[in-house]
Each structure stands twice: as C-alpha cells, then as structure tokens.
Input
Amino acid sequence: MSSLHEFLSMGGYGAYVWPAYALFFAILIADSLAPGLRRRRILRELRARLARHAARTVRAAEPPSSPSSP
Amino acid sequence: MAERVPATVTTACAAMLRRDLLLAWRQRGDLAMPVLYAVIVTVLFPFALGPDLALLQRIAGGVVLVTVLLAMLLALDAMFASDIEDGSLEQLLLAPQPPALLLGMKILAHWLTTALPLIVIAPVLAGMLHLPTAAMPALVLALLFATPLLSLLGAVLVALTAGTRRSGMLLALMLLPLCVPVVIFAAGAVAAAQQGLPWLAPIAWLAAAFILTVVLAPLACAAALRIALDS
Amino acid sequence: MSTWIPLWMHKLASPPTFYRVAGAIRPWALALALLLGAIGLYGGLVLAPPDYQQGDAYRIIFIHVPSAWMSMFIYAVMGVAGFVALIWRLKLAEVVAMQSAPIGAAFTAITLASGSLWGKPMWGTWWTWDARLTSELVLLFLYLGVIGLYHAFEDRRQGARAASFLAIIGVINVPIVHFSVVWWNTLHQGSTVNVFGHSKMAWDMLWPLLVVTLATKFYYAASLCARARTDLLDLEGGKDWVRKIADAEARP
Output
C-alpha cells in the first residue's frame, strides 16, 4: 500500500506529473472519439437524405389514386 | 478596344498604381483611420501605466511598433476587398501582363496609403512616450523595412482568404506567426539604439528579409489568389 | 498523373480503396499504439529511476518530448501532403493534410501544457520566452490558422487547397521564428533555461522515451486513418460506395 502511495506522490511532484498525464490521455481520447461521432452523424444525415429522395421518387412514379398494397 | 496591342508591362503597372492611388485619394477619409487608431492606442498607454518617465522610455519602441502593426492589420482586410466585390481581381489574373507584378503594384499602393502615414506619425508617437531622440533613426529605419514586409506578407494572406466570408480575426491569427520575426528584429533594433549599442545588424536582417519577400510575396500572392478565386 | 507513379499508388489514392485499406490498418495501428504506450509508460513511470537532479518530476518527459516530436512530425506530413495536394490536386492528399491538422494541434497543445506543468516545479515558472517554447506556441497558432482557413471556405476542397498553401508558408516560417527568438534571447540576456541540460540520458530513461515516441507515431496513424475515412464519407456523400456503407450500417 505504501509503495502505491509513494508511486502516486511521485517524490512530491505528483501534483505536476499526474495532471500532465491526465491531460495527455484526455486530449488523445477526445481526439480518437471525435471521428467516430462525426461518422455516425454523416451516415445518419446521408440515410435521411436518401430516404427523402426515395420517397420523392416513389410519389412521383405512382399515381396518387392507387396506393400499393403489401 | 481601339488598340489591339496589349499595353507594355510598365504602362500596365503604372496604370494599376495610378488607379489604386486615385481610388484611395477619393476615399481619403479612410486613410486617416489607421493613423487615428495608432494615436488613440498610444495615448492610452501612459494612462494605463502611469506617467513614469523611465517606464515609458523603456516601452516606447515596442509600443509604437506593435501599435503600427495593429493599425496595419486593421487596414489589411480592405486591401483587395473592393476589387473582389467588383470582380476586377479575376480580370487581373486574366490580364496578359504577369499578375504578380500587377499585384505588387497594388501592394505598393496599399503600403503608400496606409503604412507611409504611420511611419510619418511614428516619431511623434514615440516622442509622446519619451523615446530618446538618438533612437529615432533606428525606429524610422526599422519601420521602413518592417511595414512593407507586413504589407507583402499580409497581402498573401488576404489573397488566401479572398474566397471566404470576410473575417478579420482569422487574418490576425494567420498573420501572427509570420510577423513574430519582424517584430523581434524591428524592436531589437530600437532597443539596441536606445542602449547605445550598434543597431545596424537587425536592420540588415530586416532588409534582407524585405528583399527576399519583395521578390517572392507577389508570386505567392498570385498563386494564392488563383487558389482562392478558383471555382 | 504522370506515369512514373506505380499503379498501386493510383489505386490506393482512389477513395473507396483507401477507405478499405485505412479501415484495415486502423485497428492494428491502434493496438500497437496502446501496447507500446503501456510498455513505454510502465518503463518510464515505474522501472526508470528518479533523476538525480529533478527527482520524479522529470517523468513528464515521457509524454512531453514524444508530443513535441509529433507536433513537428505531423506538421511536416501536413506540409508534404499539402504540397502534393496543390501540385497534383489529389483529393486524398487534401484529406490527409487537413485531417492531420487537428491531431497535430492536439499534440502541440499537450506539449505546451505538459511543458508548463514541468516548468513550474523545475524553473519556478509556468512559462518562459525561450526559443523552444515560443516556436511551439507559434506552431500552435499555425495549426489553428490552417484549421480556421480550411473551415472559412464554403467549398471544402478549395478550403483544403488554400489551407495547404498556408501550411507550406508555415513550413518556411517556423525555422525563421526559431532563429529570431534565439537571437532575441541573446539580445535580452533573459531567462534562457536549458531543460535538456543532461545531454547524455541513461539508457533506463531513454528506452521508454523511444518506445512512447513509437507509440505516438502509431497513434497518429490510427487517428489519421479514422479521420480520413470519415472525411471521405463526407466528401463523397453522393457516391455509390458511400451509399452502400450507409445502408449496411443502418440499424433496424
């Protein structure tokens, strides 16, 4: 237990060493998560656009009086 | 369309310079703006720091240089603005004369109309902050090389932002890394002169940078315009 | 495109192929980065002895120096990719240049912050206007300028080309800034602090540093792959291959 405590205190410099490491990991984790989020948003928007487009073409192709039955 | 022969490079450059100077003269109210801005900023410093002579003397050179730089940055945004709006920059790129030369003339006109008044007023501003008279030649000489450097470098950046929505902050952000060496050497010359040290070396560095930039920047400016206006 | 470029490079430069290849590379690069990072940081934080002058505070070096190297390495990659983008108008080069910028800016920010956290106990100040620090700060502004210019354009590819041009100007500018700040420091005789005074590092300290450096290289590769893939999906939104991916990933 005391060795862990010693490790965390970093010879009295823990207040400087650990924030530096925390910042390093925080920034890199944020950097690696960002593209995944952006990818989800792009694909969702693309699917929405495609769905709108498909709905428009179906409506244009069919006469409004005869709804297609499944 | 009366004469089909394209104008020689010299006449085209002279015409470009005359046109820009004439346009600036018609808007001469705007010419006073950077000077007024520089005066206001310089006057505020003694109020903020107190009228302590030694302190003011120590910061005078740096304050005047930074003030002139900011005043130039203020005017930089407008360098090509009206020409982009009326499409004459696209015409310029299509002209038979080398666009770099014509752009160089535009930059020269801009320097004459914004930086030259600032250089004239700079000794007065420095005097208000009690800069010793011995350092004045160094200040004026440093400004004579530093301001065209800023105009040339700034022109490249303004050309790069030509296709965008106007944003002065972006221009400042882009210009900062480029003007750091200019400020260091110009202020270094003034500080050396103030301490009675030889101050020609930093001026010589500025002059060398100026010569290099005066050759390269118009070419870079033309290339940047091609990128930014290409659609 | 000229004929001297091998065929596989042409193929790799086509967005769908690159998308597939980058997707295959990314997990491996990320795994290697994590593994090497864990080994290097264990070596640096646990195995390496404390420095005889700086005590344990020097352990910030194991993230500070690799980040500083990456900030410059990524800028160089961005400059080269930007050059290729301007000369050959290669879409992939534009993507690589512009997607490198945020990663480089992140490493530059880490370098500045960790350096400042290291400087406080060692020099007693968070910041000093030393040539190395000032150049790093200027590098951060260059990155921010490139990112800002890229986003200022409506047309993304045009923005990428303009920002690439700015990046190339920056490549010339950084050494000039470094030189001028060194000159400035000799003039002012100010607080020039030499952090890396001990030029000969003990092997116990050196190997973790090199391993972490390697880890950050792999991390950059992984992050660039992810960002470039995402950006290609955005740029090629109307193309068939993107549509297939969008359909395949539609969760019912």
